[in-house]
Design brief:
Elements lengths: L2 H11 L8 H13 L1 H20 L5 H17 L27
Helix pairs in contact: 1-3, 2-3
Length: about 100
């Protein structure tokens, strides 16, 4: 992996290797092991991530409670799902109404 590609990886996916695409992660780790410049880039990305994490407000407990209550209410009042294999009019392969020839 080239440094430019690694820089793009950090910009797109961040400094946490767990968030890197598996297809690129192995090459990125090899580059980190071999390149002091890549390690410096990674340290800068980690520092930026830490600053961003510190600047974000924590979750609003009251807003989360309201959201959970609305979601629970929506689930409680939603109609049950149709049994497997059943279709509703106008959806799926089942026709609604008479066959085309009978409509004349």
């Amino acid at each position: 992996m080239r440094l430019e590609t690694f820089s793009g990886l950090l910009d797109t996916h961040g400094a946490d290797p767990a968030r890197w695409p598996p297809a690129e992660a192995a090459a990125a780790r090899r580059l980190l092991a071999e390149s002091a410049e890549a390690r410096a880039m990674h340290r800068r990305a980690q520092a930026l991530a830490a600053l961003l994490d510190e600047s974000l407000p924590g979750p609003d407990a009251q807003a989360l409670a309201r959201m959970r209550a609305r979601l629970a209410q929506a689930v409680a009042t939603a109609p049950p799902p149709a049994p497997a294999g059943a279709s509703s009019p106008g959806h799926g392969c089942a026709r609604s109404g008479p066959p085309a020839a009978a409509r004349w």
